[in-house]
TrEMBL record:
Residues 910-1084 form the TH1 domain. One of its GO terms (cellular component) is myosin complex. This is Myosin IHa. GO terms for molecular function: actin filament binding; ATP binding; microfilament motor activity. It comes from Oncorhynchus tshawytscha (Chinook salmon). The gene is myo1ha. Keywords: Actin-binding, ATP-binding, Motor protein, Myosin, Nucleotide-binding, Repeat. Residues 632-654 are annotated as: Actin-binding. One of its GO terms (biological process) is actin filament-based movement. Belongs to the TRAFAC class myosin-kinesin ATPase superfamily. Myosin family.
Length: 1088
């Protein structure tokens, strides 16, 4: 629901915003109406808008409002927000736009303003003023302190409405007083205070209401809504039918009015506006006393004078007002006449008494109302002396025409004439001033000026008011009829004045003898000048039969004859109703003695109300009409000094029906409110005007020279623009600050072009914007990338720098370490040395000698590690040896042991030894099969240990002979086939000799004493080291083996010696030398 409503409001904005919708919703400013002189076109536009619930339309800055008689969703907080601070013409017309514009102009120009709300009764003036007040309450800045002022301003409304409004035929809540309220703003724009001026309360309503109308709301509210206690205290009963002031109209209850609820609102409001309990008590005491007063019945005594005996109503009045009953009774039945020296008490007739009673009721009520306004003013008053600006709100009774119109209507309609006059003056004035300010020639406008009617009413000595006053004040019997005669005398020829006597036959039919008719600017109104006394018969069920009797021309209160006729009648209840005429109402007479009585009241409000009055002055008080006239003059002065804003309220129909638009009724109002005239004035020369800046701002897309920017003076831009648009010279004028356009169609053409252009523009702007966004996005991304890159590069560079710095340091240290590497460990070289050490050890690890035999490939250590290297080398060797040793077999071990023996014997002694080391030894070189059987049989028992083929050299002649050498446990045998050639007992073996060279000659030295025995043995064996090692082991002859330097001698036989010489040569050979020696040549070995 809420959403729907909001949508509706938005919809309205859209609808109005688009000029293409012009046909449907009409135009929102009448100055743009092409046929501006046509009333029909004007009404057509109003009606079109009204049917779309667009109740507001502008005529320039004037707001026309048509009463919709239904709640519209256009007064929400949201709507207020929309209108706050927005240019007047940018949004659909609204009362908020006007209020906001007035407020902002006031703030900007620091001057005073007023909003004149006019329109006939029931057109929506009071509602409009409330809307404005609410708008200010919400939109103005605020503090808690100010909030209370604001609250008071807001709640003062229901209180004043309760006491000052009533149901009339025109309006269920008709304001029966004029109200002008100043809202005061401080420099910040806060609403800081308020002040109310009230105008002419329609007091006669207290005692008399027309058929179908009611008394003031407060009476019904109190009777219907008042708490039981309170009513009891006031002597009231909760039934309006009991009070004759409330039932004359027979419509105490109205459906649109909820008196009980309103009572609560009022009660609540009273406490907000500083009313204390005694004030409230006194106030309601007064209301109740008025009701009681209305019920006071007089009886006629034998002479026809009014009497009041044991009247309970009177007692209540006396109690509530705190006045002695007797005194009160006297005041109501006698009049004090002051003759030259003494006072005479003159008794009233019943009619006269009723008149006096009513006069008292009206006086009490009227003065209390004034007191109330003052009281409210006190509570809203801002006592700060600081400078303030004000916005005045004038909600004054609208033009009224009833079936019977009396003095009140005369005053009200006079007031409306005055306001219309003011309006004409101000509008024309401001229009003229604007033309002047803009330097544009003024073109005079034809319009109806109602000054002639104002003069008719108010002119000194000649106006109706003057005549009336004269008649009231002159000595002698003045009556309503004499007044009418005087009028006819003076105004007889005035075109706006007519009476029964002055009129022609046709018109005469529509006029009574006691009437006069004025042709107001708003229409004709017939005023009934004479008073009436109505004698009615109250039947059961509250129906009153009325018999209207005009008061006699000669005396107002001599009609008791009719009365007495009725009082003696058998009807249950007689009502006497005295309706005063112009003279009485203007005099508003309250006899002095009753005023004196009131001054004795114990009710503080009553006492206050009557204390200040013209107590002893003998001068007659100012008449009501004069008072009213001067207060209107005062009001005119107040308004003239301020800037005006206008709200014109129209009634859409007489029956208060929603959605009904009564053409005739509206047409009439449009006419008399002078809306056509106003429009004519506004349109006199030019329909439309706008400040250059604003005009250019809106329409600049229509011309390439002004789009998108005009760099020069706005006025020149506008000139260029309108030239481009093809405005003709008489279609527009250039003022000082504004362009003036004569015809709306020119503007509409421009506006339509703008509408078309807007769409194109929108897509272009969209495209541009998209491009712009895209570019922006791209640029942003690029910037971001660059930024990241820069940052990253920075980071990299810083890292690189750090690394370099670190490297420099390391290198420096390295170099320094290198330079001082030989020195003892210092901080400078410690790292370098550690590096060297680590480096060396790492390298060493990969380059260790692989075998035990490798004695050379050990890495040369740096100086710092010499010692460690040596230790490591040893350790490594030991590890390798251990590993090797662990890895060898028993056979290898035996072999090694043998080789060890060989080494002991030959190492570094015989040249061929090194080559032999790697030659493994074998068990034997000749297997037993290859040894002759005979030999085997001979020596087997000695156990053969080793056999090897050898070459034996004959001791004489040195002939080489191949032989087998067999070693047994005990002896070595030289065997030739089957023969043992020589047996050498190990015991006889003295020694064994070999040369140092690389030959393979072995010489066995054998001990022999016997010549027969063979001599020493010379043999050559390829396996020299193996043979000799085996021999040394088998025979245990290690020490017997000698490596001999040079030649070796041997015994050929006992006593005969042979010699073997050794040498080295190219080729190894063995031969007998010339000297008889055996010559052994061997090749030189490389190792040596
Ligand atoms: N703007 C409005 N929206 C709805 N109803 C309105 C509006 N203005 C007036 N009315 C109705 O018309 C009635 C009479 O309005 P009111 O302001 O009292 O008239 P005025 O003060 O001109 O005599 C109100 O009680 C209300 O029902
Ligand atoms: Mg009103």
């Amino acid at each position: 629901m809420q959403g729907h409503k909001a949508q509706g409001a938005q919809g309205q904005l859209d609808m109005e915003g688009a000029l293409t919708a012009r046909d449907r919703v009409g135009i929102q400013d009448f100055v743009l109406l092409d046929t501006h002189t046509s009333e029909t076109a004007f009404l057509g536009n109003l009606k079109k808008r009204f049917s779309e619930d667009l109740i507001y339309t502008y005529i320039g800055t004037l707001l026309v409002s048509v009463n919709p008689y239904k709640e519209l969703d256009i007064y929400s907080k949201k709507q207020m927000d929309i209108y706050m601070g927005v240019n007047f013409f940018e949004l659909p017309p609204h009362i908020y736009a006007l209020a906001d514009n007035a407020y902002h102009t006031m703030m900007a120009e620091a001057n005073n303003h007023f909003i004149l709300i006019s329109g006939e009764s029931g057109a929506g003036k009071t509602e409009a003023s409330k809307k404005i007040l609410q708008y200010y309450a919400v939109s103005c800045p605020s503090t808690t302190l100010l909030d209370s002022v604001r609250d008071r301003m807001l709640v003062s409304n229901p209180v004043l409405e309760a006491f000052g409004n009533a149901k009339t035929l025109k309006n269920d809540n008709s304001s029966r007083f004029g109200k002008y309220m100043d809202i005061q703003f401080d420099i910040q724009g806060d609403a800081v205070g308020g002040h109310i001026l009230s105008y002419l309360l329609e007091k006669s309503r207290v005692v008399h209401q027309n058929h179908g109308e009611r008394n003031f709301h407060i009476f019904y509210q109190l009777v219907e809504g008042g708490e039981e206690d309170l009513l009891h205290q006031l002597g009231l009963e909760s039934n309006c039918q009991h009070y004759s002031y409330l039932v004359q109209d027979e419509c105490a209850n109205v459906t649109s009015i909820n008196d009980k609820n309103d009572w609560k609102t009022v009660r609540n409001a009273l406490s907000v506006i500083d009313f204390d309990e005694s004030d409230i008590q006194h106030l309601f005491g007064i209301i109740a006393s008025v009701l009681h007063l209305g019920n006071v019945q007089f009886e006629a005594d034998s002479k026809g004078y009014a009497t009041l005996n044991k009247n309970t109503e009177l007692r209540w009045v006396s109690t509530l007002l705190g006045i002695n009953v007797q005194v009160l009774q006297e005041g109501l039945t006698y009049r004090k006449i002051e003759a030259k020296t003494d006072e005479v008490l003159s008794p009233f007739t019943v009619d006269h008494a009723i008149y006096a009673r009513n006069a008292l009721a009206k006086a009490i009520y009227g003065r209390t109302f004034t007191w109330l306004v003052n009281k409210i003013n006190d509570s809203m008053e801002n006592k700060e002396p600081s400078r303030k600006t004000v916005i005045g709100l004038l909600d004054i009774y609208g033009f009224e025409v009833f079936y019977v119109n009396s003095f009140e209507q005369f005053c009200i309609n006079y007031c409306n004439e005055k306001l219309q006059q003011l309006f004409i003056q101000l509008t024309l004035k401001s229009e003229q001033e604007e033309y002047e300010a803009e330097g544009i020639g003024w073109e005079p406008v034809q319009f109806f000026n109602n000054k002639i009617i104002c003069d008719l009413v108010e002119e000194k000595h000649r106006g109706i008011i003057s005549v009336l006053d004269e008649e009231c004040l002159r000595p002698g019997e003045a009556t309503d009829f004499t007044f009418l005669e005087k009028l006819e005398e003076k105004m007889g020829s005035h075109p706006h004045f007519i009476t029964h006597k002055l009129s022609d036959k046709k018109i005469r039919k529509t006029l009574d003898r006691g009437d006069f008719r004025l042709l107001h600017y708003a229409g004709e109104v017939t005023y009934c000048v004479v008073g009436k006394v109505s004698h009615g018969l109250r039947l059961n069920g509250g129906i009153t039969l009325l018999l209207n009797v005009p008061t006699c021309p000669t005396s107002r209160f001599h009609c008791h004859s009719h009365m007495s006729l009725l009082t003696h009648h058998s009807f249950s209840h007689v009502v006497v109703c005295v309706i005063p005429g112009f003279i009485d109402k203007n005099n508003d007479m309250l006899y002095r003695n009753i005023k004196d009585v009131m001054r004795q009241s114990k009710n503080a409000i009553v006492r206050e109300c009557f204390a200040s009055t013209e107590s002893d002055s003998r001068r007659r008080p100012e008449t009501v009409a004069s008072q009213f006239k001067s207060s209107l003059l005062g009001l005119t002065d107040i308004l003239m000094s301020k800037e005006p804003w206008y709200v014109r309220c129209l009634k859409s129909n007489e029956s208060k029906q929603p959605g009904r638009f009564d053409d005739v009724l509206v047409r009439h109002q449009v006419k008399y409110l002078g809306l056509m005239e106003h429009l004519r004035v506004r349109r006199a020369g030019f329909a439309y005007r706008r400040r250059y800046e604003l005009f250019l701002q809106r329409y600049k897309p229509l011309c390439p020279a002004t789009w998108p920017h005009w760099r020069g003076v706005a006025a020149e831009g506008v000139e260029v623009l309108v030239q481009h648009l093809g405005y003709l010279p008489d279609e527009y004028k250039m003022g000082r600050t504004k362009i003036f356009i004569r015809h709306p169609r020119t503007l509409f053409a421009t506006e339509d072009a703008f509408e078309v252009c807007k769409h194109k523009l929108a897509s272009r702007i969209q495209a541009q914007y998209k491009g712009y966004r895209q570019k922006g996005e791209f640029r942003r991304q690029k910037e971001a990338a660059t930024k990241i890159e820069t940052c990253w590069r920075g980071v990299q560079a810083r890292k690189e720098k750090e690394r370099r710095q670190w490297a420099v340091k390391v290198i420096k240290k390295f170099i320094k370490g290198y330079m001082t590497r030989g020195e003892a460990k210092t901080t400078d070289n410690s790292e370098y040395l550690a590096f060297v050490r680590q480096n060396y050890l790492n390298r060493l690890k990969d380059n260790l000698p692989k075998t035990v035999l490798d004695k050379i490939s050990w890495l040369t250590p740096p100086p710092v590690l010499t010692e460690a290297s040596a230790i490591l080398r040893q350790l490594h060797m030991r590890v390798m040896v251990t590993r090797y040793v662990r890895g060898i077999t028993a056979q290898q071990k035996a072999q090694l042991q043998l080789k060890g023996i060989t080494s002991v014997i030959f190492k570094d002694k015989k040249d061929s030894y090194p080559q032999s080391v790697s030659q493994p030894f074998v068990d034997t070189r000749i297997s037993e099969q290859d040894i002759n059987m005979k030999v085997l049989q001979m020596i087997r028992h000695e156990r053969i240990k080793y056999s090897v083929p050898v070459v034996k050299y004959d001791r004489n002649g040195f002939k080489p002979r191949p032989r087998q050498l067999i070693l047994t446990q005990t002896a070595a045998y030289v065997v030739d086939e089957a023969k043992i050639k020589q047996k050498v007992q190990y015991t006889t073996l003295k020694g064994v000799s070999v040369s140092t060279l690389s030959d393979s000659i072995i010489i066995f030295h054998i001990a022999s004493e016997d010549v027969k025995q063979k001599g020493d043995l010379v043999i050559q064996c390829d396996h020299l080291f193996e043979v000799l090692t085996k021999l040394s082991v088998v025979a245990n002859k290690q020490s017997a083996i000698n490596v001999v330097q040079g030649s070796i001698s041997f015994q050929i036989q006992a006593g005969k010696e042979g010699i073997v010489d050794f040498s080295s040569g190219q080729e190894s050979m063995v031969y007998k030398d010339k000297n008889g020696h055996l010559m052994v040549v061997s090749t030189r070995t490389k190792a040596r």
